[in-house]
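=== Structure Prediction Worksheet ===
Name of assembly: unnamed complex
Input type: mixed (protein and possibly other molecules)
Chain count: two
Listed entries:
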Amino acid sequence: MDFKEVMNELQPLFREVFDDDNLVLTTETSADNIDDWDSLSHIRLVVAVEKKFGIKFSYGELQELKNVGEMAETISRKLTEKQS
Amino acid sequence: MITASSRLGLVQEYRHRNIQGACVDLVPFSMKYAADFVRIRNSERSRYFFNQQYKLTVESQQVWYEKYLHRPDDIFWAVLNKQQRFIGTIRLYDIDPEGQILEQGSFMIDEEVAGTAPYAAEANMLSMDFAFDVLEIGEIINRNRHDNKVMNNLSRKFGFRFVRDTEINGIPYKYYLCNREGYMSVRESIYSLITYWSER
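=== Predicted Assembly ===
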């Protein structure tokens, strides 16, 4: 799954976690742009992403994620690694 | 129903006893954590949201700690991860011996690790479990700086209801209360999240 496809898959997932059907993701979307993004919703999001894509983020990867774009890149890379 | 003296006895007992969770442990604070505590509390973000006008030092924390040891109605925990690294604090204080109310505060998790596991969620859950199940407290007070989005969101998600706007040292704060019923209405979903995480 490439980066763009991952971004498309993340959109409905974010809308569900943050309970906002109008939420529109960009690569720069982060906790700074979403009012309801706190530590609990962050963990809910990570769990939802892991379940959706069948991956696990490492501690280091979670520390490094700065925005949705970086999350999508990491997911795409991990999916590629999984397939090879 | 426990008596006032039993309740204060439990406070003393748990000032010497760890509470173990799946991702964190609540450990009675001691001065061996003071350097890490001061480092995290003196971050720009912590100072802003704790409305802390000055930088803490290990020495100032020693003075505070010695006064704390003489208070019968206060439990201050260090939050440790499962590698026993100090990652934050949480506190229950002004614990009413009759069990009506107490206040939760001094809640912080090191920004460096906050997003890597449900540390904040579990530390909060463990302290509230203790308040409602062990101390049999009626209500918990929480006061957050008005613009502390993260903590205001977290308070609501843990069953706290907004009561009123208030002020501390000239800064607007939001005052919340949570009773057992409000907490139990949300606890299961939070517990499930933490359990999933601990087993991943």
